[in-house]
């Protein structure tokens, strides 16, 4: 346990160190149609803490670069323990510390991987419950299809020997991946109002994604639809399948030392019911729509980002669970 705590604080210290060291190095160009790298990929994950393995804030960044880095995610929830309006409420805080990366394989293929460490705290009627440990790792393979401009015929019928393709800035991404059961699932914790107060799900899950990106030197937009096929764990417990939709628009400001990319976005998640022993558990489905604001700063080969998300509407676990604000910060080294 002490080693895991040391791992957490080492990650936080490294994030702070890198954030103060990013000035004065090579710039990374913002994503645009002249680049041949992968566009950023945003994927929303399950509401509950045990499934924030790929992060509620995405697999990639706004900067059009492959990377390795560190990310911290904070989520808070309130769960009403009873059927009455004055029933006691528990407060849950979920801290996730991730080692994450976006790794090129070939020109049109890449991998997104991450390994999370979970630190959860629950306050209820003056008592505190603490959970921590390795979470569920994930890996996703991506294929990117780039759209190029069509060549126009020369009026004088001369032969154009220039074979260079010019990208339009539009592209599609197709993703297929898995979340691995590397985190521990505890059956007794599933009886809480928020059964996602877990370090892991204990199940092998599949992910299927389709994304559209557009990028220029001044403006960009990312959209993504992802469906999560949740597996059953050894306790015959299965979190419900999930559909996630998200979009994010950003602009680019260049200075002599950095590129600044502020963005706005929103996402919508639909959660199916949880099942155990082939029986559907009541009031375990829901919907959540959030708005997001943030910015990314690129200085030489370093990428620093932060974003904040606030629920716009929600109906979770029969109205007994309320998602509060969420935020994330990260520091990456471009490859």
Number of domains: 1
Strand-residue proportion: over 45%
The rounded Rg comes to 21 Å
Low-confidence stretches: 7-46, 51-56
Secondary-structure element string: HEEEEEEEEEEEEEEEEE
- Specify the helix fraction band: under 10%
CATH H-level superfamily title: Autotransporter beta-domain
Largest sheet: 12 strands, antiparallel, barrel
- Helices and strands: which structural class? mainly beta
> What is the end-to-end distance?
33 Å
**Integer average pLDDT:** 83
Overall shape: it is elongated
Question: What is the CATH class?
Answer: Mainly Beta
The side-by-side strand order for the widest beta sheet comes to: 1-2-3-5-6-7-8-10-12-15-16-17
CATH architecture: Beta Barrel
Q: How many beta-strand elements?
A: 17
Q: Which fold does the CATH topology refer to?
A: Lipocalin
**Total number of helical segments?**
1
Plain-language structure description:
The chain is elongated. The chain has one helix at residues 2-19; strands spanning 67-80, 89-106, 109-124, 127-134, 138-148, 167-179, 205-215, 219-229, 237-238, 242-251, 253-254, 259-271, 275-276, 279-280, 286-299, 302-316, 321-334. The strands form 2 sheets. A 12-stranded antiparallel β-barrel has the order 1-2-3-5-6-7-8-10-12-15-16-17. It has one domain (2-334): Lipocalin. It has 335 residues and is mostly beta strands. The longest helix is centred in the first third of the chain and has 18 residues, at 2-19. It has 1 helix and 17 strands. A hairpin with a 2-residue loop joins β15 (286-299) and β16.
């Amino acid at each position: 346990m002490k080693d895991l705590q040391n791992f957490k604080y080492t990650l936080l210290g490294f994030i702070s160190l890198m954030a103060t060291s990013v000035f004065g190095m090579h710039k990374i160009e913002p994503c645009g149609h002249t680049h041949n790298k992968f566009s950023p990929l945003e994927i929303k994950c399950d509401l509950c803490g045990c499934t924030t393995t790929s992060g509620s804030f995405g697999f990639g960044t706004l900067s059009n670069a492959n990377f390795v880095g560190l990310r911290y995610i904070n989520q808070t929830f309130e769960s009403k323990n009873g059927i009455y309006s004055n029933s006691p409420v528990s407060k849950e805080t979920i801290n996730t510390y991730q080692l994450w990366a976006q790794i090129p394989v070939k020109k049109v293929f890449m991998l997104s991987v991450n390994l999370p460490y979970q630190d959860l705290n629950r306050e209820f009627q003056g008592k505190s419950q603490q959970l921590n440990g390795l979470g569920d790792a994930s890996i996703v393979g991506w294929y990117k299809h780039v759209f190029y401009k069509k060549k126009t015929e020369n009026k004088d019928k001369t032969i154009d020997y220039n074979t260079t393709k010019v990208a339009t800035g539009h592209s599609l991404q197709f993703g297929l991946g898995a979340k691995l059961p590397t985190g521990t699932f505890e059956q007794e914790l599933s009886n809480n109002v928020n059964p996602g107060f877990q370090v892991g799900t204990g199940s092998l899950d599949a992910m299927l994604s389709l994304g559209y990106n557009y990028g220029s030197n001044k403006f960009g937009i990312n959209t993504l639809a992802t469906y999560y096929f949740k597996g059953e764990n050894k306790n015959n417990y299965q979190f419900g399948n999930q559909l996630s939709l998200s979009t994010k628009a950003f602009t680019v400001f260049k200075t002599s030392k950095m590129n600044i990319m502020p963005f706005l976005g929103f996402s919508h998640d639909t959660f199916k019911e949880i099942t155990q022993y082939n029986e559907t558990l009541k009031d375990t489905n829901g919907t959540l729509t959030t708005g997001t604001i943030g910015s990314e700063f690129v200085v030489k080969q370093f990428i620093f980002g932060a974003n904040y998300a606030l629920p716009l509407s929600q109906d979770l676990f029969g109205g007994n669970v309320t998602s509060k604000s969420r935020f994330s910060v990260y520091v990456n080294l471009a490859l």
